[in-house]
Amino acid sequence: MTPASAPALVQETPYRYRIEPTGRMRVPGVVFASPGLLPEVGGDQALQQVADVATLPGIVDASYAMPDVHWGYGFPIGGVAATDIADGGVVSPGGVGFDISCGVRLYAADLDAAAFAPRKEAVLDGLSRSTPRGMGKGAVWDLSGADQLAKVLASGAKYAVEQGHGVQRDLDRCEDFGAVDDADPAGLSERAVNRGLHQLGSLGSGNHFLEVQVVDAVRDQAAAEAYGLRAGQVCVMIHCGSRGLGHQICTDHVRAMEQAMAGFGITVPDRQLACVPVESDPGRAYLRAMAAAANYARANRQLLGQAAREVFERLTGAGLDLIYDISHNLAKVETHRVTGGDGAAGAAGAAGGAGQPRRLCVHRKGATRALPPGHPDLPADLRDLPDVGQPVLIPGSMGTASYVLTGVPGGPAFASTCHGAGRTLSRHQAARAVRGQELRRLLESRGIAVRGASWRGLAEEMPEAYKDIDAVVEAAEGAGLARAVARLVPVGVVKG
DNA sequence: ATGTGC
């Protein structure tokens, strides 16, 4: 059972640590972090969660933690776990998170920082008005009823664009080209549907934001150019998810699996790890509902992006081109080579060495897919470039830098990397440390325009409550998870 | 994250 003390870490390389399998762990734990990040790597609970995930039926290679790992519901945030579907591998809602398909969308404007500066306050005012946010209701698109919601759930951003809320490029550059096709709107609870009807096109709260950013430094010229980014360019980044709908779906299926688990002979060290085989009725039902929430989240970001685009065009004359849209809370059925999780196994597999290709259920919770160059699922215009992988969008905490990375060959964690800075202080600790008004003054004095939803919400997101995003990205690069393409700094933030 | 919470 769960050991009382924190699991011991053994350093394997400067950016890779191992938790030896003990007790019911089926595979080792692997933590990617720099020595500098490690002492505060989420505390004992996050590492214990890495070890607990390693006990899940069908898990292969290792239970992975990204450099931004911290404590979460059941699984750590910043966790990656893959299960072998044909070998009784499970799916767990806790491995996806409550905010199903929470993710990031980045647009680039045909506008440089100097030309934007005189318009900054007006644009931020415009974005503040066009971006419903905060707890509860208010949305860009109030749906007519369950029939229209079903279309959103089935077709995601594709439906939004079909209805005039966007352009073809928005789909070409979106993960899964705007929609996953195995969603089942009919399987959702009435509560999930009701919560979804009036929140489409809304940011939410917590760490969700819409930011105007400027490309501060380009680290990889070829990839930046292919993506459509240049130094000094103005960008818009949107970070949000599936709102109350995804939350309700997670709640519904955790409950169902808690009941169903015993029937499959599954016991877990923490009830928050409730899971069932992928190949089971409740497993398939969860994945289809999760897919519906993924489509809702994409449509959500599509609508918020379109509203921002209209503000930009009206006030600056510049359009917004989508760079990419990627989720960091999702499970996906993918084929990878499985090698047993020893050291360089993942890299060797990807290079065509040892390891059998298996159909896996890859859980990424607070972790971002990072496909290597040449992968068939890349956008068509990026697919045939030799050293350019999938765009990876890493939002920093409020007032700090964000990053664009690219997927690399031979990634050691099923083509995954970090998702952001990762919390170090609780919301409560942060709110006690600073007042929202004070924080806004500080950010404004550093040239960052702030449009908040609540003073408390602002305080909870103080930069000091998060890890250093530069160090997290450095560790991700050092561990061979991804490569930096561009660093972006905020000039204006609309907070949920 | 979330009509913050058994």
What can you tell me about this protein's structure?
This protein has 496 residues and is of the alpha+beta class. It has a single domain (9-344, 356-424, 466-495), classed as tRNA-splicing ligase RtcB (Alpha-Beta Complex). The chain is built from 14 helices and 19 strands. Strands 7, 8, 9, 11, 15, 16, 18 and 19 form an eight-stranded mixed sheet that branches. It has a seven-stranded mixed sheet with strand order 1-2-3-4-5-13-12, with helices on both faces. A hairpin with a 2-residue loop joins β1 (10-13) and β2 (16-19). The longest helix is centred in the middle third of the chain and has 36 residues, at 281-316. It is globular. It binds one DNA strand of 6 nucleotides through residues 73, 97-100, 102, 135-137, 195, 204-208, 241-244, 246-248, 250-251, 329, 427.
Produce the secondary structure layout.
Elements (H helix, E strand, L loop, with lengths): L9 E4 L2 E4 L9 E4 L10 H11 L9 E8 L6 E8 L5 E2 L11 E10 H4 L3 H11 L15 H17 L5 H5 L17 H8 L11 E10 L2 H7 L5 E8 L2 H18 L15 E2 L3 H36 L3 E8 L1 E10 L6 H6 L5 E10 L2 E2 L21 E4 L7 E5 L9 E2 L9 H7 L2 H10 L3 E3 L3 H6 L8 H10 L4 E13 L1
Parallel strand pairs: 3-4, 18-19
Antiparallel strand pairs: 1-2, 2-3, 4-5, 5-13, 6-10, 7-9, 7-11, 8-9, 8-19, 12-13, 14-17, 15-16, 16-19
Helix pairs in contact: 3-9, 4-9, 6-8, 8-9
The chain binds one DNA strand of 6 nucleotides through α8.
Radius of gyration: 21 Å
Shape: globular
Strand residue percentage? 15-25%
Uncertain runs: 343-352
Q: What structural category characterises the helix and strand content?
A: alpha+beta
CATH architecture: Alpha-Beta Complex
The termini sit apart by 40 Å
Please indicate the count of domains. Answer: 1
EC number: 6.5.1.-
Pfam families: RtcB
Keywords: GTP-binding, Ligase, Manganese, Metal-binding, Nucleotide-binding, RNA repair
Cofactor: Mn(2+)
